[in-house]
Design goal:
Chain A has about 325 residues and is mostly helical. Chain A contains 15 helices and no strands. The chains are: A mainly alpha (about 325), B alpha/beta (about 300).
Chain lengths: ~325, ~300
């Protein structure tokens, strides 16, 4: 845990340090305390730090949501991206953006994204009541994702506001480029309430390891637990999708790495999963920025490159077990 | 917690689906200080009764209807009016199905038994840690306490779950087939543990398929058949007719000494092939050639 805190701070610092304009360590330190030249301060405070914090928060929310959904559904393959929650949130966000709702009401973007996420999370949780098969849940997630992507392209085709293909790609693949502190502040209330819900209901996730009947037997209020975790994961995922679009798989990788260190207890995996996912996504974003490509890679692409093989690996291991 | 005086009383409880009645209106009482064994053939409604007693009967099947007149009272209070945590501090429940989602450590699984007392894994209060250690000792799991549960044998896993309900230290305890997959030594260990739990003033209700274990340890034997409680009697009152009627087998009751030292007798049954309708075709009727004990 102290190690993860240290890694988080170091990664954030590295995010300020590295980039197209070379800055020295001392310059960055001076800029952070407000003692550097205006130009250097601008680079650090207006460009690199908000982008870094955005990447970290997006990762943290997805990591925590992934760990919580895995605990709730009792399955290591559950994750906002795989279950179609991110895609549905992105659908909500694009609807709010390109149909002018954002101009009418400034909270429209995060609210629409959160509603999209909640709708998908509720559907998945309802399905989880009827079946214990994770295959069914993932198929529902695939269906939701495909449907959300199709609906999004349909919406954009009919959108009264101009859009570019790049916008569409940003929302489906995810990116934190050019995010400002205002963007973050806008979703922060939703993000914080979502993460708080997950945090304060983490004990029930431990109980669910015994199976639902035994969890009821030891005094878990299962209905309430389901409702609040679904709400928490929906709020947190919706909030970060409103910042960065749909970024998949990160919510699987981080909890998977964390689990052996916390005796496989979903409750104790929550915070470390969030921090590790934050660090991973932040590092991935730094790699994207320093890679000498003409068009910047999308963050979601890197996350999927890292995460999808882990997903396949876990799925493969489970079928052979 | 002072368990004395806690009691569970069910009056005319029933459970039914649209198609069939799973539990016909039944009365049932469990008091502290007694060990009650619930017996009956597969599908007789034993688990349904346990779930209805706990108010958990519709946790997975939402199309269940239950008779509005039926009521389960825990200390004169309707059990469905209690919060899950309040109920769990009075009754511990060990279900028949115990699917583990994660390969947790044995000590953590046992600690979950104290969930209703507010346990957070990895951060136990002194009282909780003490109860967990006692449960581990009582179920001879101390040497396995830090093992992952997926590395244990079936019998060891069953003992971990027994330790979990034991750690809850509730006035009443309900266990659905706690001895399944245990060897004879550990079956007797579990029943001895439950017996002393009852003698210390707790109330225990346990489902068993081994009638002879029940004869040895039970205060009352409750028989179920086709969704009905057909008898509630002390072990000494059980007749061959009862066994034959409930299980559809032939049955021969004997008296055997309790142990090499204690020559007081205790009933023992030897079952044979079925004589009731529904037994496999061609099975011998009447004089059985070779009888097997149920184990």
């Amino acid at each position: 845990m102290p190690l993860l805190t240290l890694a988080s701070v170091l990664a954030l610092f590295a995010a300020c340090l590295l980039g197209s304009t070379p800055l020295s360590v001392t310059t960055v330190l001076l800029a952070l305390v407000g003692q550097a030249t205006p130009a250097d301060s601008l680079v650090v405070w207006q460009i690199r730090l908000p982008r870094g914090i955005a990447a970290y928060l997006v990762g943290a929310a997805l990591g925590a949501s992934g760990a919580a959904l895995q605990g709730l559904l009792r399955n290591p393959l559950a994750e906002p991206g795989v279950l179609g929650v991110s895609a549905s949130a992105a659908l909500g966000a694009t609807f709010a953006l390109y149909y002018g709702l954002v101009g009418m009401w400034m909270w429209a973007l995060p609210v629409a994204a959160v509603l999209g996420a909640l709708l998908a999370t509720t559907l998945v949780a309802l399905a989880a009541l009827r079946t214990s098969s994770i295959v069914t849940l993932i198929l529902i997630g695939v269906g939701l994702s495909s449907f959300a992507a199709a609906a999004m392209s349909l919406l954009l085709n009919f959108a009264p506001h101009p859009f570019s293909l790049a916008d569409m790609i940003n929302w489906t693949l995810g990116s934190v480029a050019n995010r400002s502190f205002q963007d973050i502040a806008l979703v922060l209330p939703f993000l914080i309430s979502g993460l708080a819900l997950l945090w304060f209901n983490r004990r029930g996730l431990s109980a669910l390891t015994l199976g639902e009947e035994a969890a009821l037997g030891i005094g878990l209020n299962l209905r309430r637990q389901r409702l609040l975790v679904v709400l928490g994961a929906g709020l947190a995922t919706g909030a970060v999708v409103a910042i960065a679009g749909a970024i998949g798989f990160i919510g699987i990788v981080a909890p998977h790495l964390v689990r052996p260190w916390v005796q496989h207890d979903p409750a104790r995996s929550l915070l470390p999963s969030a921090m590790l996912a934050g660090v991973i996504l932040l590092l991935a974003d730094i790699v994207i920025r320093v890679l000498p490509t003409t068009n910047e890679l999308k963050l979601g692409v890197v996350a999927a490159l890292l995460g999808a093989p882990v997903f396949v690996w876990i799925a493969y291991r489970r079928t052979s077990a | 917690m002072n368990p004395s005086g806690t009691h569970l009383r069910a009056t005319r409880i029933s459970v039914s689906t649209q198609q069939q009645t799973l539990l016909h209106p039944s009365d049932f009482t469990l008091r502290t200080g007694e060990l009650v064994v619930l017996l009956g053939p597969n599908g007789a409604g034993k688990t349904t009764l346990l779930r209805r007693l706990l108010g958990l009967h519709n946790f997975q099947q939402r199309n269940l209807l239950h008779d509005g007149q039926g009521e389960v009272c825990l200390n004169e209070q309707n059990i469905e009016a209690l919060s899950p945590a309040e109920r769990a501090r009075l009754i511990a429940y060990l279900p028949q199905e115990r699917p583990m989602a994660w390969p947790n450590r044995v000590r953590d699984v046992v600690a979950l038994g104290r969930y209703a007392h507010g346990v957070s894994l990895g951060n136990l209060s002194a009282a909780d840690a003490h109860a967990v250690q006692q449960a581990l000792d009582a179920c001879q799991l101390t040497s396995l306490a830090d093992r992952r549960i997926d590395t244990l044998s079936g019998g060891e896993t069953a003992r971990v779950h027994c330790a979990r309900v034991y750690a809850a230290d509730t006035p009443l305890l309900i266990a659905d087939e706690p001895t399944t997959s245990l060897d004879p030594l550990h079956q007797h260990n579990v029943l001895t543990l439950l017996r002393s739990y009852a003698d210390n003033g707790h109330g225990v209700l346990v489902v068993l398929h081994d009638v002879n274990l029940a004869f040895r340890y039970a205060d009352r034997m409750v028989w179920m058949q086709q969704g009905r409680i057909v008898a509630d009697e002390p072990p000494q009152a059980v007749t061959e007719a009862r066994l034959k009627a409930v299980y559809g087998t032939s049955a021969m009751l004997q008296s055997v000494p309790i142990s090499e030292r204690d020559l007081n007798t205790l009933p023992q049954v030897v079952f044979g092939p079925g004589t009731a309708p529904g037994s496999p075709p061609g099975s011998p009727r009447g004089a059985p050639r070779e009888e097997r004990t149920e184990q």
